[in-house]
Amino acid sequence: MKEGKIIILSAPSGSGKSSxxxxxxxxxxxxxxxxxxxxxxxxxxxxRDGVEYYxxxxxxxxxxxxxxxxxxxxxxxxGTCYGTLLSEVxxxxxxxxxxIMDVDVKGALxxxxxxxxxxxxxxxxxxxxxxxxxxxxxxxxxxxDSILKRLAKADFEMGFAPKFDDVVVNDNLEAAVNKTASxxxxxxxxxxxxxx
Length: 196
Ligand code: ADP
Ligand code: 5GP
Fold this sequence. Notes:
- By secondary structure, the protein is of the alpha/beta class.
- 40% of the residues lie in helices and 22% in strands.
- The protein is built from seven helices and nine strands, in the order βαβββαββαβαβααβα.
- A five-stranded parallel sheet has the order 2-7-1-8-9. Strands 4-3-6-5 form a four-stranded mixed sheet, with helices on both faces.
- α1 packs across α7.
- The longest helix has 16 residues, at 173-188.
- It is globular, with a radius of gyration of 16 Å.
- 34% of the residues are buried.
- The mean pLDDT is 93.
- Bound molecules: adenosine-5'-diphosphate and guanosine-5'-monophosphate.
- Adenosine-5'-diphosphate is lined by residues 11, 13-19, 135, 138-139, 170, 172-173.
């Protein structure tokens, strides 16, 4: 069986990565499997353990990091860690599926360096800072403190965009999903005319 590729999506929080990934997962010919990250933050809205994230206590997160269970992990916001478990990478790629992951900019570039040619790193760009703030507020799942932390980091994150293999602007969701799907097909050798 052909081993799956690694598709990395990164962007400032609120740009629409999760919305794009949810739609891509429904496109059968992309043959995607989502990499469920671990985090030390609490679930938001209706997030479920083992679906959007593995929600770990800070202590458990650190213990698993010390045991070498992560391919990479970062303290993305002060006091909040996120990481990709090696077990997730093998679970999905050994089943022949392409692994899609949502990670912060530093994690994305570390994973790209680790997996080299096997990985495609895409940056999802919001149309503007104003629109980003509007989306974070309209999601109505984050506290004011969490929204401000995310906005404060957006310029730093957007500065990393040129280091990615490609940039997709998420203005119209449908168009952003189509462009991302097309880039994934090109990278993993899926013929466009077989696309749904
Ligand atoms: P992220 O995963 O990058 O943090 P989300 O996917 O949660 O972002 O999107 C943030 C908010 O913006 C959500 O409420 C989502 O419905 C909305 N959203 C996503 N893409 C678009 C778009 N193209 N136009 C308008 N709203 C969008
Ligand atoms: P959120 O709290 O909005 O779900 O995610 C916050 C940030 O953490 C986003 O930038 C997201 O991409 C990043 N993130 C999620 N999972 C991982 C991971 O496994 N590793 C790294 N480095 N960042 C992650």
